[in-house]
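Private note to self, pasted from the team thread so I don't lose it. Backbone tokens:
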């Protein structure tokens, strides 16, 4: 029985690092063992200790649940961080830090790729803008805390702790150590526009603040368009941007670095649930490649499509996020496709 359990562990480790010689080298380094000691464990002559299993799982980015259930091919485990603190500032700081550390492994890898699939404006794009960044925290606080009916946006204060993490997020994204591919939905800004208008109609955001949101969202459109036009961000990271002709799924990112891969999905509150399951990641990689058949590259080419796309986003912001759009009759937004 012990040998069987140990073999399950070894099979799980080999799924992440298929080359035995390379796996042995990694285990020697992280467990501080000599080569023969590692081989004895891989041959199940000596079982792995719990501490060793924990160290290996943490290093390879696989969960203990994944190891235990490795024989079950009908299920795929996902990781979701459960917050221990009940303090909203601490919880939101954890959410920001998890997003901040999402690409940390990429920067230390010899080879890497990042594919971002976006059907709504991700919170990372809003962080350079004071009111938009504040709105993400305000919206999260509104939905997760017991707030009063007069929970006005103007009275809501963002703690310095959160502002500092937001700034670091902006700085670190600018120096990401690999090229990025972005697939964008045809109606990227609509969800945030509808969310802001909801709070406007509740009387929690004033028309003056609504105008400030409109100005910042237009600046955000300019920022994304500039990156799509030039193919690089301010930190020199190469970014290839595509427009999708079909509706995309909820925001997610596929990350591949060295011999590892992970898929990370974002909730509406910017929290992350992830899977490093080999088959799951491979399926998602194939799916992303297939999606590109329905997209148009707008980086350093297709200027007409690029201009039309971003002019459409500006039209949404100007027409749907203005005091004249606050009546319920005007809340229905028709999603028109780009002309062909």
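Design output:
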């Amino acid at each position: 029985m012990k040998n069987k359990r140990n073999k399950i562990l070894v099979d799980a480790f080999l799924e992440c690092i298929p080359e035995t010689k390379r796996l042995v080298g990694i285990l020697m380094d992280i467990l501080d063992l000599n080569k023969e000691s590692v081989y004895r464990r891989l041959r199940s002559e000596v079982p792995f200790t719990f501490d060793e299993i924990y160290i290996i799982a943490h290093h390879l980015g696989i969960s203990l649940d994944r190891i235990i259930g490795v024989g079950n091919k009908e299920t795929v485990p996902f990781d979701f961080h459960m917050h221990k603190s009940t303090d909203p500032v601490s919880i939101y700081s954890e959410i920001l830090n998890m997003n901040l550390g999402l690409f940390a492994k990429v920067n230390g890898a010899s080879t890497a790729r990042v594919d971002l699939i976006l059907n709504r404006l991700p919170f990372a794009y809003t962080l350079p803008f004071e009111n938009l960044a504040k709105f993400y925290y305000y919206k999260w606080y509104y939905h997760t805390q017991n707030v009063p009916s007069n929970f006005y946006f103007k009275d809501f204060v963002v703690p310095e702790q959160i502002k500092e993490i937001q700034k670091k997020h902006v700085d670190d994204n600018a120096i990401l150590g690999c090229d990025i591919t972005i697939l964008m939905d045809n109606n990227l800004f609509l969800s945030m526009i509808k969310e802001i208008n909801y709070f406007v109609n509740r009387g929690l955001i004033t028309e003056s603040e609504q105008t400030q949101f409109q100005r910042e969202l237009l600046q955000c459109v300019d920022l994304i368009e500039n990156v799509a036009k030039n193919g690089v961000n301010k930190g020199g990271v190469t970014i290839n941007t595509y427009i999708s002709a079909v509706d995309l799924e909820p925001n997610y990112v596929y990350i591949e670095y060295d011999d590892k891969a992970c898929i990370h999905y974002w909730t509406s509150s910017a929290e992350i649930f992830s899977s490093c399951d080999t088959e799951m990641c491979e399926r998602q990689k194939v799916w992303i490649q297939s999606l590109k058949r329905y997209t148009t590259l707008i980086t350093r080419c297709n200027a007409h499509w690029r201009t039309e796309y971003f002019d459409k986003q500006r039209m949404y912001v100007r027409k749907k996020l203005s005091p004249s759009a606050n009546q319920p009759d005007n809340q229905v937004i028709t999603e028109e496709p780009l002309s062909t």
